[in-house]
C-alpha cells in the first residue's frame, strides 16, 4: 500500500504508523493500516478512526482473496 503515513497513539498507548491505502481517493472515505508490535495489523476508516480492527496478516490475506473472488455482496452494487 502506498500513500500517506500518520503516527497516532492508540488505545494501548502505543504509537502506530498509519498508512493510507493508495486506492483511497483524497476526498472519500480512506482505509488506513498499521503494523502493531504484537504482529497483528490494525485497520481503520477515516470516517470512524476510533473503531480499530485487529487482524492477523493471514486473515487479511484470506479476506482480500474472498473479496476478489466475489464472495461478498455489496450494498448498492459492486465497489467503484
Percent in helix: 10-25%
Uncertain runs? none
Cα-atom radius of gyration: 13 Å
Q: What general form does the structure show?
A: globular
Structural class: alpha+beta
> How many helices in DSSP terms?
1
Along the chain, the helix and strand elements come as: EEEEEH
Mean pLDDT: 78
Major sheet: order of its strands? Answer: 1-2-3-4-5
Query: Major sheet, described briefly?
Result: 5 strands, antiparallel
Strand percent estimate: 25-35%
Strands, total number = 5
Distance between the amino and carboxyl termini: 18 Å
Give an account of the 3D structure.
This protein has 1 helix and 5 strands. It is globular and about 35 Å long. The chain has 80 residues and is an alpha+beta fold. Strands 1-2-3-4-5 form a 5-stranded antiparallel β-sheet. A hairpin with a 7-residue loop joins β4 and β5.
Summarize the structure.
This protein is an alpha+beta fold and 80 residues long. It has one helix at residues 57-68, and strands spanning 5-9, 15-20, 31-35, 41-45, 53-55. The chain contains one helix and five strands; from the N terminus they run βββββα.
